[in-house]
Amino acid sequence: MLYFVSVIDDRTNSGTPEEMVEIAAFNERLRERGHWVFAAGLADPATSTVIDGRGEQPVFTDGPFIESKEHIAGLWIIEAPDLDVALALMAEGSKACNRRLEVRPMLTRPGA
Amino acid sequence: MQPPPRGATDAHAAWGVTDARTAIALAHREEWARVVASLAKRFGDLDIAEDAAAEAFAIAVERWPADGVPANPGAWLTLTANRKAIDRIRREQARADKHREALMIADDTQLEPLGAIDDDRLRLIFTCCHPALSMEARMALTLRLVGGLTVPEIARGFLVQEGTIGRRITRAKAKIAAARIPYRVPAPDDLPARVSGVLAVLYLVFNEGYLATGADTDPVRADLTAEAIRLTRLVHALLPDDGEATGLLALMLLTEARRPARVGSNGELVPLAEQDRAAWDASLIAEGHRLVRERLEAGVAPGRYQLLAAINAVHTDAPDASDTDWTQVVALYDQLVRLDPSPIVSLNRAIAVAEVDGPAVGLALVDALAHDPALAGYHAFHATQAELLRRLERPTEARDAYDRAIALAGNTAEVGYLSRRRDQLDRLG
Fold first, then answer.
1. pLDDT grade, residue B97 (50/70/90)?
2. Rounded to an integer, what distance in angstroms lies between the CA atom of residue B245 and that of residue B196?
């Protein structure tokens, strides 16, 4: 089962060197225990572009698509057998990156 | 009357139940959670478990009066519910084969530690009270799936629309399935925190019934308090060594015991000191005291519920309010403040201190809490100030405090009581 984990922040590029060390160590533990799928930090939401390609011509507009005080500053995708395992892992992750996290199950692909 | 500890068969024989309606009501109380829990384990889907259990009971309502009560009602209900569940799964498989996989909730039976707590009902309770669900959802789900209350019954208990409760339950079941909340008893490391989460749900249900709020509503909703006690008895029976589960059960029993004396014939709340102690339920008090003694003898540092139960034991031990051992109450609150430094605990401690050291000392402690935003909107804070100011013969300030308390109180019986106390000041002053 895959879980999508968003890092909640109200600033951008705010990670400290100490946090980076902690996050790297946490990611290493995820890999060792076989939970790692993907992780990345995200640039400021103001750098985003909204695309609407549903019409004849694609329309590009300056993002973000939702203005909010808090935004997604980074993400993990992890593999875990159930939510309890995912929550326990990402409680460690929250401590490592010193941010609140949101864990959301990814839809299972039919036939996968 | 004590519910029978084991299978309903013995109970039926012992009580000589012949009436099918009574048998169904008894089976519902005794077997519902077991039927739902075993189906949830077998089919890995709470929705199927709930619907199939409900169908089995509906069939019993039809058949038992005509065919007679089966020798083992629990086994009959489980078997019937299993058949209904299989019927439904076949129908759904025929419709959309691949869809089933997504609906499955995790069942890792093989990881289960065996022993006293290996009961399917415990898995069901822990799943319904999972910390990833909202508190409202946990209460509704627990009452429906473990307690067997219907959606209209739960809606009446919480004074909300049936549709709201129905949606809460549906949404919670969908989250359990989609996020794969596991159907299992937590690992020993996580157990204390998770048990405390379960007890918090049950205590909230109890308080919702006992401290019912809302204009023009009954001051006590006994169906909720009774259900909370029944569920806490179940948790206590499943986790007999958990001191806090024992403590919570004792606390509920000792609180419930005073219910007959709590609201006067005029619909007003009767404070503890003025209650007719002869109206208290002696058997509930005896049971509560026994549980408190059991925890004292265990010699383990008590948790929050055990301390609250002990405080209630001191109150219910006094033949008259003037016999109350307030020094003991203060000592217990001192312990509680160390565990739970919340302003509400400090407020209650101040009330006990006022009984030992006088209203001036009590009021000084209460006033010191006035800056706390959590208390500013709490009617009991202002009511306490008012009572202490009255005793100190400061009627003008007391009247203002009563006014603030009345404006904030949500319980109809409490509003009645506070208004009368305020109006008495006019006659005094």
1. low
2. 8
The region that residue B114 occupies, defined by phi over 0 for left and psi between -120 and 50 for alpha, beta otherwise, is beta
**Residue A55 placed within a domain:** no
Contact A81 B106 (CB under 8 A): yes
Using a CB-CB cut-off of 8 Å, the residues of chain B touching A88 are 190
B186 touching A (Cβ < 8 Å) = yes
Measured between CB atoms, which of B98, B108, B180 is closest to A111? B98
Asked whether residue A72 is assigned to any structural domain, the reply reads yes
Query: Which residues of chain A make contact with B131, given a CB cutoff of 8 A?
Result: 87
Is there a contact between A35 and A93 (Cβ–Cβ < 8 Å)? no
Contacts of A84 in chain B (CB under 8 A): 181-182, 186, 190
Q: Is residue A56 part of a domain?
A: no
Q: For residue B181, list chain A residues with Cβ-Cβ distance below 8 A.
A: 82-84
DSSP B211: T
Give the list of residues 6+ apart from residue B95 with CB closer than 8 angstroms, or none: none
Q: Does residue A112 sit in helix, strand or coil?
A: coil
ipTM of this complex > 0.95? no
Give the mean pLDDT of A29-35: 97
Q: For residue A26, what is the domain's CATH number?
A: 3.30.70.1060
Q: CA of A87 to nearest chain B CA: how many angstroms apart?
A: 9
Does any domain span residue A110? no
Number of domains in chain A: 1
Range of the domain at A83: 2-43+62-105
Say if CB B183 and CB B127 are below 8 A apart. Answer: yes
Nearest CA of chain A to the CA of B180: how many Å?
5
Residue B214 pLDDT: 62
Nearest CA in chain B to A111: B98
Classify residue B189 as exposed, middle or buried by CB count within 10 Å of its CB (0-12, 13-18, 19+).
Answer: exposed
Q: Which two tokens stand for residue B200?
A: 């918090």
Closest approach of chain B CAs to the CA of A30, in angstroms? 20
The distance in angstroms from the start CA to the end CA of chain A is 10
Residue A111 pLDDT: 52
B108 touches chain A (CB under 8 A): yes
DSSP class of A18? H
